[in-house]
Design brief:
By secondary structure, the chain is an alpha+beta fold. It has one domain. The protein is 21% helix and 48% strand. It is globular, with a radius of gyration of 13 Å.
């Protein structure tokens, strides 16, 4: 059973096995400058870094998945606070991504 992770009583993702997965909406959650995905710093430090090997971001808008190792995220991360608390971010160039599959064919 996955372990749900919360910030201010909102689910921000889940840990299943040694993978942290975060469901997002690109149009709402992606950093624009620089183009990056971000994770709450306190949750990363207290939960993800010590119990996960992989981070997966699932973009609900497109179905695209982004994946990176926790070690690489930790090594290359930047720090930002956009008014929602301190977050670590990793620019898109570091993420491996999968194109979404729609009805049996690649888009």
């Amino acid at each position: 059973m996955p372990k749900l992770l919360f910030v201010d009583r909102k689910i921000i993702g889940e840990i299943e096995g040694r993978t942290f997965t975060k469901q997002v909406s690109r149009s709402r959650h992606m950093l624009r400058i620089p183009m990056a995905w971000a994770i709450d710093a306190s949750v990363f430090d207290s939960e993800i870094k010590k119990s996960c090997d992989t981070i997966v971001i699932v973009d609900r808008d497109s179905g695209k998945k982004y994946q990176v190792s926790v070690a690489l995220f930790d090594k290359q991360k930047g720090i930002v606070d956009r008014g929602f608390g301190r977050q670590y971010f990793l620019t898109l160039s570091w993420w491996n991504s999968e194109k979404p599959v729609e009805q049996g064919k690649l888009i």
